[in-house]
Write a structure and sequence with these properties.
The protein has about 220 residues and is α+β, with helices and mostly antiparallel strands. It has a single domain, classed as Fumarylacetoacetate hydrolase, domain 2, CATH 3.90.850. Helices cover about 15% and strands about 40% of the residues. The strands form four sheets. Strands 2-1-12-9-8-15-3-4 form an eight-stranded mixed beta sheet. A hairpin with a 4-residue loop joins strand 16 and strand 17.
């Protein structure tokens, strides 16, 4: 069960517990084809085969979602990716912030398995999607790894959110209980891991932000 402090357009805050029953990762959602190719090239440098088509939707275990301050991973070969995430509710969609933390070594032979191997940290705050939908492209995303800027950009980097939603479920909204990260930004300095991953989703019009950070605890490989 996840729990969110939801800030409405008028500034009121309510707490809402949510049970997510289906997690779908939207991959290869870049709007700019040149920048999308840049991300594909980043992963190809790590031995990851390019996608046959884009975007791609990866169903994963909903239990991977966590709002804890730390995750545990096997070895040193994983890293985070900042993403805006939509969640379907009976009252409409929420937007929050998530990290599609991924095992980069497993990614070389299966992207879906590499994503399934890692928990997905999620922020504890959210907004109603309807409140920001008209200015979606102005929202900004940033991640910082061990204090240094790792990713930085705005939501124009990804396809429009409703286009991604339609591709996943054939409707204008995610069904209640669905959660879907919408894609990520290119990284500065190449894909790499770290001990602490911090991320921010910002709305320049209101000055509001959603933030989350987590530690990466590495488990030793037994052999």
């Amino acid at each position: 069960m996840l729990s969110f402090a939801i800030t409405a357009a008028d500034g009121r805050v309510e707490r809402l517990p949510l049970a997510v029953t289906r997690l779908v990762i939207a991959g290869w959602t870049g709007r700019d084809k040149a920048k999308l190719q840049e991300h594909i090239d980043e992963l190809q440098a790590l031995g990851v085969a390019p996608p046959v088509s884009t975007p791609i939707y990866y169903p994963l275990s909903a239990s991977l979602l966590t709002q804890d301050d730390a995750i545990q991973v096997l070895g040193a070969g994983s890293s985070g990716e900042v993403e805006a995430m939509l969640i379907g509710t009976p009252r409409g969609m929420l937007v929050t912030l998530a990290s599609d933390h991924t095992d980069r070594e497993a990614e070389a032979y299966s992207i879906q398995i590499s994503k399934q191997m890692c928990q997905k940290p999620v922020a504890r705050a959210a907004w109603w999607f309807a409140d920001v939908a008209e200015r979606w492209d102005s929202l900004t995303l940033q991640s910082r790894q061990d204090g240094a800027v790792y990713q930085d950009g705005d939501c124009t980097a990804m396809l429009p959110p409703l286009e991604i939603v339609r591709g996943a479920c054939g409707a204008e909204e995610l069904p209640p209980g669905w959660a879907m990260p919408l894609g990520t930004l290119p990284v500065h300095g190449g894909i790499r891991g770290g001990d602490r991953f911090a991320m921010t989703l910002a709305d320049p019009k209101t000055g509001r932000t959603i933030e989350h950070a987590y530690r990466v605890e590495r488990l030793e490989m037994a052999g």
